[in-house]
Amino acid sequence: MRRYPSIDRLSGSCTADLRRLERTRYWPEATEEAFWHWKALAYGPLRRLADPSSVTRCGFYECGCDPGRSRDHLEAVLHVLPRKSAREFRALVRALDLTILTRVRVIAADSLDVPWWRDQL
Question: Could you name the domain of life of the organism this protein comes from (predicted)?
Answer without folding.
Answer: Bacteria
